[in-house]
Write the structure tokens for this entry.
Amino acid sequence: MPLEKWNPLRELETMRREMDRIWDDVFPSRKMGLPWKRQPGAQAESGAATPAIDVIDKNDSVVVKAEMPGVSKESIDVTLEDNVLTLRGELREESDLKEGNYAYSERNYRYFLRAISIPFKIRRDGIKASLKDGVLSVVLPKAVEEQTKKITVEVSGQS
């Protein structure tokens, strides 16, 4: 077996990868896939639920799908500011159970928030959101980037 020069940076990189794996196991919401995984705004505020999402990069748009079972469209707020898509809202569940002389009432209110950095310029006038079967779909059309235009320099009035 040939000797290999020891490199402390290699061991630090191995340790960093192992810590990332441990955090991904503890916080599954971190597993969003690049380029979204390590961008700021990808995690929710403390105390709020974080809906599971898929972010799909299509040729002309970015589609974000978020699981929101039981959430009504009226309680969902979708905003895009500085290329950060924010999904927020509240789920209210109320149930009344009556058994003989015993009445039982339970109310469950859950707040959710998810902020996702979008690494593309977005055309704001074409953004669409829909809710179907407990899945929120947000379509963000990509802005057409202007092509570089070559300008010909003309020579005028030689003296």
